[in-house]
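Sharing a chain and its predicted structure for anyone who wants a worked example. Both blocks are below, sequence first, tokens second.
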Amino acid sequence: IGDRQTGKTAVAIDAIINQKVFENDPSRRMHCIYVAIGQKQSTVAQVVEKLKQAGAMAYTTIVVSGASDPAPMQFLAPYTGVTIGEYFRDYGVNGEKGSATNPAQHALCIYDDLSKQAVAYRQLSLLLRRPPGREAYPGDVFYVHSRLLERAAKMSDKEGAGSLTALPIIETQGGDVSAYIPTNVIS
């Protein structure tokens, strides 16, 4: 959580790059999913280039819904990313359901950033004439984000012991972490 240009994306990209040390260890291997929501194409291109230079694209999937994409696509992009993450958590690389004898894989899903998804959801809700709430966001925006983030989980050994970790990024305005969206994601 932080203002523009404070290094939130850089920390997330470093987290992806640092997973390379586990690439050859099947029990600790991590598949990373980077979900760019409402980002400029040039910004996403820089991220992809950094990941390529670090050799991280072999274990990374990138989902992009750019700034010029319609609001419904920006709203749905995080769900696409988490679904990919759930696949790796539940099935691993070989595509077979995880079990005690067939371990699944770990996954990391980075949402960059959920405040832009909230803006897209606000646009959709206002177009659908749903009553606006605080800061003109619909009343169920908290439910939307909690439902998304609660899909991150660690499976039992019986289910393959895979895991999905969510790393949401939220942009604040003027360092105000008490604004509606940052407060919702924090809680």
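Comments welcome. The chain has one domain: 8-186.
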